[in-house]
From TrEMBL:
CDD domains: HAMP, HisKA. InterPro entries: CusS-like_sensor, CztS_silS_copS, HAMP_dom, HATPase_C_sf, HATPase_dom, His_kinase_dom, HisK_dim/P_dom, HisK_dim/P_sf. Its main location: membrane. It comes from Paraglaciecola polaris LMG 21857. The keyword Membrane applies. This is Sensor protein.
């Protein structure tokens, strides 16, 4: 159901209930007013009849004459007077109320609660039966007022109120529909602007000052979403360009070397050297594709670490043995400091991440210096693994991008010897998949990568 229909339907129900309630209250109030008005008029009639009977006490002829003049100037007023239990000896009209009033309560003092409603023929009457006592006789007086005028008025009023209620509902619904339609115009404007946003126009932003205050949060959230999308598309675009370049370089080397070798006859040793060279490029391609698959799995939550309790001292010493030859060749020392601690992690994934960090540290350490791995406890239940190497200080603006794919602080470096630029991105993906965190700091000629992992139980 559309928002307009919902609002209009809600307004319709609310207005209908309110108008029906107002109609009921108005009818009830008018009916109550008529009851009071008729009661007051009946009280006047009873009082006038009582005065006429007391004035000519016991003189029937004079009483009849006086009763005929007792009530004057009242329209639709009827009364009958009887002595004791006999029939009426006076009536101001041909209407007989004896039968309809025979079960009515008889009161000596007129009150509003004594008023009854009687139907005689097609007409309704309000009446009261009173007992008037004089020194010589006891009179039973039936007084009644015709309700036809009141009933006709109330019937017409009910019909009129139904028409007024219907007209008011329709007018209110029309006003509500126009208000909702006008109120939603800013949303339609936003929708038109959003419709023109495409992948090549992600720099478009909605103006939050051009919308009502209620929509400012939505515009802010939408613009923030566009910021993230634009950043994601830019990174994807750069990633596509970088990966194309990274894949093209080894393929170009393989093709060029093969073409050169086939340009003329070669010796077996030369062909063997070509195969070894091609194998090296193919292994590089294979590693790059494996790394990208690992990153793709991490992005989609497909990495499922098999955590176990690992001795960090044993794991890092094993990695030191693996990098010993490379470190000696580069005249770089490897050092482990800190308490012997156990960490809860996946052994294969942790080694992969630490291998990338150590390889990166050795590659950027000046000959004669030492790469240091420090172990410490953090906040009681966390383990910190810091890989620190001396070297050029990395500018602050580059630190937040070091874990991006193919990102390089110095784009002029040779990619072939410097790796594909996926190592730090893979390390971050592995650590975060195990519920940890990784951070980097660089100052005063020292660069430090810090890993936080959960301590083994």
């Amino acid at each position: 159901m559309s928002l307009t229909i919902r609002v209009v339907l809600f307004v319709a129900i609310t207005i209908s209930v309110c108008l029906i309630l107002v109609r009921h209250l108005l009818i009830s109030s008018i009916e109550h007013h008529f009851v009071q008005q008729d009661g007051e008029e009946l009280a006047v009639i009873v009082h006038s009849i009582e005065e006429a009977l007391v004035q000519h006490n016991g003189q029937v002829a004079d009483e009849q004459q006086n009763l005929s003049l007792a009530v004057a100037g009242h329209h639709g007023v009827y009364y009958q007077v009887a002595i004791g239990g006999s029939g009426p000896f006076f009536s101001n009209s041909a209407l007989d109320f004896v039968d309809v009033a025979k079960n009515a309560p008889v009161s000596t003092q007129f009150t509003q609660s004594d008023i009854q409603q009687w139907q005689l023929g097609d007409n309704m009457f309000r009446g009261v039966v009173t007992l008037i006592k004089t020194s010589n006789a006891e009179y039973r007086v039936i007084s009644a007022i015709d309700m036809s005028f009141h009933s006709h008025f109330l019937t017409e009023l009910r019909h009129s109120l139904w028409y007024i209620l219907l007209g008011s509902c329709l007018l209110t619904l029309l006003a509500a529909w126009l208000a909702v339609y006008q109120g939603l115009s800013p949303l339609r404007g936003l929708s038109d602007k959003m419709r023109h946003i495409q992948t090549n126009k992600l720099d478009v932003r909605l103006d939050k000052h051009a919308v009502p205050s209620e929509l400012e949060d939505m515009v802010y959230s939408f613009n923030h979403m566009l910021d993230r999308l634009e950043e994601g598309f830019l990174r994807l675009s750069y990633f596509s360009a970088d990966i194309a370049h990274e894949l093209r370089t080894p393929l170009t080397n393989i093709i060029t070397q093969t073409q050169v070798s086939l340009s003329k006859a070669r010796s077996n040793d030369e062909y063997r050297d070509l195969l070894f060279s091609n194998l090296e490029e193919q292994e590089r391609l294979n590693k790059m594709i494996s790394d990208m698959l690992l990153l793709a799995k991490s992005q989609n939550g497909l990495i499922k670490p098999q955590k176990q309790s690992l001795s960090l001292k044993e794991e890092i010493n094993a990695l030191f043995e693996f990098f010993e030859a490379l470190a000696e060749e580069s005249q770089i020392g490897l050092e482990l400091t800190g308490n012997v601690t156990y960490v809860s992690a996946d052994q294969t994934l942790l080694r992969h991440a630490l291998t990338n960090l150590l390889s990166n540290a050795i590659r950027h350490t000046v000959a004669g210096q030492t790469v240091t791995v420090r172990l410490s406890e953090q906040n009681g239940d966390m383990i910190s693994i810091s890989v620190q190497n001396p070297g050029e200080t990395i500018p602050q603006e580059h630190l937040t991008h070091l874990f991006d794919r193919f990102y390089r602080v110095d784009p002029s470096r040779q990619r072939h010897s410097d790796g594909a630029g996926l190592g730090l991105a893979i390390a971050k993906a592995i650590i975060e998949a195990q519920g940890g965190a990784i951070n980097v700091e660089s100052a005063n000629g020292q660069t430090e990568f810090s890993i936080l992992l959960h301590k083994a139980a």
